[in-house]
Specification:
Layout lengths: L6 H7 L22 H15 L5 H18 L7 E4 L2 H11 L7 E4 L10 H4 L1 H5 L2 E4 L9 H7 L4 E7 L11 H11 L2 E5 L18 E5 L11 E5 L1 H4 L43 H17 L1 H21 L16 E4 L13 H12 L5 E3 L2 E5 L6 H16 L1
The structure holds pyridoxal-5'-phosphate.
Length: about 400
């Protein structure tokens, strides 16, 4: 049977991920295997740094190239993207720059959000007198109806993860976006678990702000993130930190003119702060090129297709896949366990702890989150990985 286009390409790039041949790596939701192309770009930056050959003009050009690559990945413009350190930094930068009035509120589903999309909002409570309204999850999902019902006349922001870190379901971002836009409420998205795995277009989803980091599905390093803010929104905001890169300047980077009469930079560039994490931006630039080359629609099909096969394989050997048979809310993340716990990274269920230890002892890579075993797939995974993990579970069952 002829192979569909794309399959051969995914097979070929597997060799560019050193860890892919060392046991099934299903832990992109914690961090990705580093792409050899990103590693090579990083090495060459470090060589230049070590030998005094770094060139600031080239470094800034690389910053702009990566900014544009990321913007294109999510259907945005380069001016709508700011550099950050991580997701928390992105959410906090956006949140703290909003013109809050005492009594305003944010709606979110606390039980399913990562601290990166909780603490920045809670941190604003004492400063601005705002409220955080939390909605209960339904069957491990962020519920569209519950979220919409919680919006009132004082709601300024709805904050959601596009895919939750556990149990890993997709959130109803598009439906929330349409309704938020209609009601004049901003939609802020934590994209840490989706951007780079799930094809995302911020415009058609009506997203106002989106923060992500580069060490997971963007296949880069820790310590770098991106913040998208829709131009019409960012240009109405004053950045919480004012920096030389956040203002419109010409000529040398430090030539800010009269600091009393600064003009803010276009769009989200006003949120850039000081010098950049150049090596991490250069590295992720190569990974972004790879994602573009593969095509995000192909990437999504590949990773979610493998996740579906993994979930079906688990069900066949009797594992309690959270949520049962994969459906339209499934992603590239499969979680296993009977119920969602409260602790971030512990498994209260002894049997699941035993299975985790067995898999790790047999070179599989996965995480435990909220009492669930979490398997997360990316471009370097293949059907062989899926078959190997299901087979390990089968052997564990027989013991
Ligand atoms: C949904 C989600 N948001 C955010 C983060 C990370 O936040 P930060 O980059 O601020 O450490 C993670 C995982 O680490 C995550 O799963």
């Amino acid at each position: 049977m002829p192979q569909p286009a794309g399959v051969t390409r995914f097979g070929a790039i597997r060799a560019s991920f050193a860890g892919a041949s060392q046991g099934p790596y299903m832990d992109v939701s914690a961090r990705s295997l580093l792409y050899a192309g990103a590693r090579a770009a990083l090495d060459s930056y470090l060589d230049a740094n070590a030998t005094g050959r770094l060139d600031k003009t080239e470094m800034f050009a690389a910053i702009e190239k990566t900014r544009s690559l990321f913007a294109r990945l999510i259907g945005a413009e380069a001016d709508e993207i700011a550099y950050t350190r991580n997701v928390t930094d992105g959410i906090a930068t956006f949140a703290a720059s909003l013109p809050w009035q005492c009594g305003d509120n944010v709606v979110l589903c606390e039980a399913l959000e990562h601290p990166a999309n909780l603490l920045p909002w809670y941190g604003l409570r004492p400063r601005f007198g705002i409220d955080v309204k939390t909605v209960a999850p339904v069957r491990g999902r962020i519920p569209l109806e519950g979220m919409l019902a919680a919006i009132d006349g004082r709601t300024r922001v709805v904050a959601v993860s596009s895919v939750t870190f556990a149990p890993g379901f997709r959130s109803p971002v598009g439906a929330l976006g349409a309704e938020c836009r209609r009601r004049g409420v901003l939609l802020a998205v934590d994209g840490a678990q989706s951007i780079g795995a799930i094809d995302t277009h911020v415009g058609s989803l009506n997203v106002d702000a989106l923060a992500t980091s580069t060490q997971k599905t963007l296949m880069g390093l820790y310590g770098l993130g991106f913040l998208y803010v829709r131009r019409a929104v960012s240009e109405s905001l004053d950045p919480i930190f004012l920096s030389r890169f956040g203002i419109a300047t010409e000529g040398h980077e430090a030539a800010v003119g009269n600091p009393r009469e600064y003009k803010l930079a276009k769009g989200s560039r006003r949120f850039d702060v000081g010098n950049f994490n150049f090596p991490a931006a250069i590295a992720v630039g190569r990974s972004l090129e790879l994602l573009h080359e593969l095509g995000m629609d192909n990437v999504e099909r590949h990773v979610c297709g493998l996740a579906r096969k993994l979930a079906l394989g688990f069900l066949e050997v009797g594992l309690p896949v959270f949520g049962g048979e994969p459906g339209s809310e499934s992603s590239h993340i499969v979680t296993v366990g009977r119920s969602l716990g409260l602790e971030h990274d512990s498994a209260g269920d002894e049997r699941m702890r035993d299975l985790y230890a067995y898999l790790v002892a047999n070179n599989a890579h996965l995480s435990i989150r909220r009492d669930l075993l979490r398997f997360s797939l990316h471009v370097y995974n293949n059907e062989e990985d899926v078959a190997q993990v299901v087979d390990l579970v089968r052997r564990w069952n027989r013991r």
